[in-house]
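Weekly modeling sync, notes
Attendees: S.R. (lead), two postdocs, one rotation student

Agenda item 3: backlog of single-chain predictions. S.R. asked that every request posted to the team notebook include the full sequence so nobody has to chase files. The rotation student volunteered to paste the first one in as an example of the format we agreed on. Action items at the bottom.

Example entry:
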Amino acid sequence: MMEEESEEEEQKTEEGEQAEPTEESAEETETAETLEKEEEAAEAIEEKVEVEEELHPAEEEVKPPPRKEIEEEIVEERTYTIPLGRAWITPPNKRAPKAMRIIKDFVKRHMKLEARREGEEEEEPKRLIVSNDVNERVWRRGIEKPPRKIRVRAAKDKDGNVTVYLAEGE
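Predicted structure, as returned to the notebook:
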């Protein structure tokens, strides 16, 4: 009986060596498998990139159309220094919005841009446009500390619309 058991163990070890790889060969197969998986993942990513490039060509190839700047006829242009001290009377967390309202009211009054009345009907209402530069200058130090005064350039076009720009040199 002992002999049979020892023979069976020898057969199992021989079969086990063949069926189960040694430690070195196991590591090699694991690294080979991981390399294969990484290669497959890289190929999948490359395929996705190729598909995206077909759908969205490279930015260098596609140039946006040239920006058309609308040259509007300026009828009247004036430079103003607008005092914003009244904005400092309001609570600190409302000062910058108040300063923007003061700028708009000042320009409406001085450029004679009247608000629409109920009885009047116009094709296009006259508009007041404040440029981003003016807005950024007012908001630069935050909501609580707008400037005490600001120099602006107001330009009225032939349609009666007024655009407010930051004065040159500001």
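Discussion: group reviewed the output briefly. The helical segments are 2-19, 23-55, 95-110, 132-139.
Action items: rotation student to repeat for the remaining queue; S.R. to check formatting next week.
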